[in-house]
Amino acid sequence: MRRVKVSKGIEKYLEERKILVDKALKEFMPEPSGLAGDVIRAMNYTLFAGGKRIRPVLCIAGSEAVGGSADDVVPVACAIELIHAYSLIHDDLPVMDNDDFRRGKPTNHKVFGEAVALLAGDSLLTLAFNLMASYGLDKNGEKKALLRVIDLIASAAGYKGMVGGQMVDISYEGKDPDPTVVEYIHRHKTGALIAASVTAGTILAGGNEEEVKSINRYGQQIGLAFQIADDILNIEGDRNVMGKGIGSDKVRGKITYPSVFGISESKNIQTRLIDHAIESLNRFDERAEPLRDLARYIIKRKG
Amino acid sequence: MRRVKVSKGIEKYLEERKILVDKALKEFMPEPSGLAGDVIRAMNYTLFAGGKRIRPVLCIAGSEAVGGSADDVVPVACAIELIHAYSLIHDDLPVMDNDDFRRGKPTNHKVFGEAVALLAGDSLLTLAFNLMASYGLDKNGEKKALLRVIDLIASAAGYKGMVGGQMVDISYEGKDPDPTVVEYIHRHKTGALIAASVTAGTILAGGNEEEVKSINRYGQQIGLAFQIADDILNIEGDRNVMGKGIGSDKVRGKITYPSVFGISESKNIQTRLIDHAIESLNRFDERAEPLRDLARYIIKRKG
After folding, report:
1. What is the pLDDT of residues A291-301, one digit of tens each?
2. Cα-Cα-Cα-Cα dihedral of B151, B156, B157, B161, to 10°?
3. CATH no. of A9-298
4. Residue spans of beta strands (DSSP E) within chain B
5. A28-51: average pLDDT
6. Complex confidence, ipTM
7. Domain extents for chain A?
8. Is A145 on the interface with B (CB under 8 A)?
9. Less packed terminus of chain A by CB within 10 Å, N or C?
10. Using an 8 Å Cβ cutoff, are B46 and B89 in contact?
């Protein structure tokens, strides 16, 4: 098994972009007030529970790779994080994965109750589209790019993407491990929104069609690799870093890459995916270096 | 109590526009197929369970009132119906209103299970934004109007609208009837999306700002009246027409207009709202006649 080397610079890059995203999220999100204050409190609870902001950072890096700026894409990057937060809240509900902890904290429904958690998820998903549409209205020009990005992100989040993956994930629990099924689950449940994140950045920064296609291919590969890394962390990870139960996939009979291919082969698949992802960036210059580093980082992270 | 007279023509108008909407929905919605076919099946189940399509018809009527056509707004009208269908599925879940029947049929989670119902709702909400954004991309020009409509509808559906209303609705169950609270619930839970439906039609048809404002005022009034009518039907309605439990609001201790004001005064409030709604249309010519008739119809319907 070849070792993948991660540049130290990427952690600084991640941290700096994360600060931008967190600042913007704080500005965008409402303060809990009024009769429906509880739902806002619940939305903020999960949104500010300490995520790494990988998807928004990818969106920014996708913009920077073609000469765009972070500022141009931050509202869309934040919208994607809202969609990610909604998916965590709904996935953790008792009728879905029934998780009590996430990132070391009680899950949304454990704090606010299932009804409020359901509504907080619904509301985060809806607010994401608010954010993108109102940003498109404010911005001069670029309305077509914004509509394209809304379409792309909605496709990646819905039954053609994340929801479809989640559907298959829960319906195949306890069934025999199957390579086609696990690839479908991972590409849809996790890969689709990750690919949409980085591609949205490139579209908004005015990347040409060839660039958009290459970045999307990159996103598909790292998206799948990201979920395989999660599968492996669920077996080998450190409970203190992960902040949730280790081994829970096995207990639930989830179909994962390690359950289908074994750990060692899963790591080989990961490495090949990252190699292909980096190859997809051949046409790009040094401005795509953070994307190359992010690809390597994704399979080396500890949580 | 003054009797409101409903034109016979409005039932024909409703039926004709409903056929347009149903046809378009059938074209837009995917056939269940692939590994995630169940979630598509569940989406279609509720979407085609026999709704009256009031919101899409209002969207069309809002366009026609300023000289627009039905065809121009049908994709957005359908998107609004998708959002309405999602809200029904999530509201019926055991953690929310726990309803077993809707329109005389078992609710979504009774047929598909709670996990699939949750995902079907998420997916319908997401697909609504897909539909609007991809329509905006296809259409030459009008991209600004489309972004404005996406923003308007997302606001009406999220914590500032429908989700906020639902939040207060469930959190005030069993509490003392309060006029401020019941108005908040009804304006948000039901009024916001109804107002957005008709306003979206007027915006897309190129109505000027004064027209958009008047139509929105109209929508706010009929939206509130619509929910008061629902409250009254929950007491006086015919179980066979309603297709769900009569008296369920009282059993659950829901705060309703009848519980706050009594039935007779609720009917007076309804009538005043409809009068004001029709007054809001003073600047419009005979092309707004369906909107005037729809206002009267909304409080006279039997189910």
Report:
1. 999 999 999 87
2. 140
3. 1.10.600.10
4. 101-102, 105-106
5. 96
6. 0.95
7. 9-298
8. no
9. N
10. yes
